# Entry
Amino acid sequence: MAYDLASTTWGDEEFAAIQRLLKAGRFTMGEEVRRFEEAFAAAFGMKHAVMVNSGSSANLVAVAALFHVKNRPLQRGDEVIVPAISWATTFHPLQQYGLRLRFVDVDLHTLNIDVAQLEAALTPRTRMVVAVSILGNPAALDVLRAFCDRHGLYLFEDNCESMGASLNGRPCGTFGDVNTFSTFFSHHISTMEGGMLLTDRTEIDHLARVIRNHGWTRDVPDDTELFDRSTDPFFEAYRFILPGYNVRPLEICGAVGVEQLKKLDAMIEVRRANAARFVELFGNDERFIIQREHGRSSWFSFTVILNPALAIDRRRVMEAMRRAQIGFRMITGGCFLRHEAIRFFDYDTVGPIVNANIAHDHGFFVGNHPRDLSAEIRQLREVLDGAAVPATSAADVR
Ligand SMILES: Cc1ncc(COP(=O)(O)O)c(C=O)c1O
# Structure
């Protein structure tokens, strides 16, 4: 039995939506993307949703938009507080826009930013905090929001890994001034490639629509406060007001998104049932540090950190999983400070980065899927039981 990292969640509805668009010959961004945006904003109780071609693009557009807001825009050299573990493209737009990063260690159990270090991370140059809920598990978003409000900072929630999660009844991806999601293949819903930006601020919504589409004015309502619409349609059709990109999604992705979103809640329930099974089998074994749920996780996957105090050989564990055809991988992107790309960044760290390095060196994750994984999780338990041997007890046996 192969236990993969991810699998398709599409059914007849998604294929029918694609067929309908193929027949209509409608491919570039239009009404279906608009429908998905409206459904998405409604599902999360936010005013505006802007779809783009990936979660990475959503992050890029979000950062760009904050450089163009009228009041207190971000500026080059401003500081941003970030967790040491996230995906590379959480960080890359920050570098590309000339921001200075202050990395904070994560909590070893939740894998999210250690909020006890926020005050130490703050300097007179701090302008923004990036909140990331790792692999479905809500970060302390309430604490981060309150911290930002207290110090007049932007909160940017990269929620690309945690659609469907919530904290105190409030969905992850709605705490930030700007929030992003990914609908890449392996995520909670899939549009093949895709991303979404969510905000309650109309100015950010309009900026995102301009930046998404070449920096032109066509996609913004006439009553926008971003600029004054001229009366010359020839000029207006090709009027560029900001240095934008082309990160538009395909119409097919919008149509599939509408169908996938209808299934989100049911899929999360199945993921959570699998998680209960995983916690039951792995929760009380000192060899394994598994992700501790904070709030209500949407359980992207199941993380295992081999207890560093027991010196378990991760290579041996990985080899056993490979033999058993169990897919596994690094926890998100591991500790970002360990990647070569860091040499291009202006950054420092707030205290020692310990836990992110432990996760990097001793951790991995296996997949969760919206189908019953009882047998797969049992098999994982058997494989790890045999392979995760503490060095101390192994020596005793010899
Ligand atoms: C936290 C985080 N941010 C951003 C992204 C980028 O999303 P995408 O793969 O859709 O570009 C990912 C991807 O998995 C992610 O995990």
Q: What stands out?
A: The pocket of pyridoxal-5'-phosphate is lined by residues 54-56, 59, 86-87, 89-90, 132, 158, 160-161, 182, 184, 195, 332 (CB under 6 Å).
